[in-house]
Automatic annotation (TrEMBL):
One GO BP annotation of this record: adenine salvage
GO cellular component: cytosol
Record-given protein name: adenine phosphoribosyltransferase
Subunit-level organization: Homodimer.
Pathway: Purine metabolism; AMP biosynthesis via salvage pathway; AMP from adenine: step 1/1
Reactions mediated catalytically: AMP + diphosphate = 5-phospho-alpha-D-ribose 1-diphosphate + adenine
Length: 191
């Protein structure tokens, strides 16, 4: 579900967030219109508005875990967790966590990858949201859901700053709701 469909239609914060995201053509390879959130992070108002919208959504949902996907989920997840009184759990690429961990592989458009989480980071029955910057195919979010559910956490929702209008990734989320702030921007007169 897009934020604009959930009571935020016409909210100027969404337009500000969208405009703060830089589109980089042909990165990391030809044909890709990369949605660069680093420019959003440089814009204090847009960054704050992004976090505030997620906080407003999750504040009263009895969330105890905010799981952020490496690396861009780390930029929003900790602030959301602090604001709603939840713990932040990093979901990392292989070899980055020092303790006992579990892992979950997933398929990308161009290969495979893996996410890892510390054993004991979540407890059975804890209510979790998964945060990332962008959803496309849903493979990464799906792996995050599987990791949390293997530890018997209840994944309430996945939240992303950017999502494709047709939200193809929604089909891979095992029925979990998906909350998206803005659609990807295109460059006018590009390429």
């Amino acid at each position: 579900m897009f934020a604009a469909e959930n009571g935020l239609r016409g909210d100027p914060r969404l337009q500000g967030i969208s405009e703060a995201i830089r589109v980089v053509p042909h990165f990391p390879k030809k044909g890709i219109m990369f949605q660069d959130i680093t420019t959003l992070l440089l814009n204090h108002k847009a960054f704050k508005d992004t976090v505030d919208i997620f906080v407003d959504r999750y504040r009263d949902m009895d969330i105890s875990v905010v799981a952020g996907i490496e690396a861009r989920g780390f930029m929003f997840g900790p602030s959301i967790a602090l604001a709603i009184g939840a713990k932040f759990v990093p979901l990392r690429k292989p070899g980055k966590l020092p303790g006992e961990r579990i892992s979950e592989s997933y398929v990308l458009e161009y290969g495979t990858d893996c996410l890892e989480m510390h054993v004991g980071a979540v407890q059975p029955g804890e209510r979790a949201v998964v945060i990332d910057d962008l959803v496309a195919t849903g493979g990464t979010l799906s792996a995050a859901i599987r990791l949390l559910e293997r530890m018997d956490a209840k994944v309430v929702e996945c939240g992303c700053v950017i999502g494709l209008p047709e939200v193809k990734g929604q089909n891979r989320l095992n029925g979990k709701p998906l909350y998206i702030l803005v659609e990807p921007r295109e460059l006018e007169d590009c390429c």
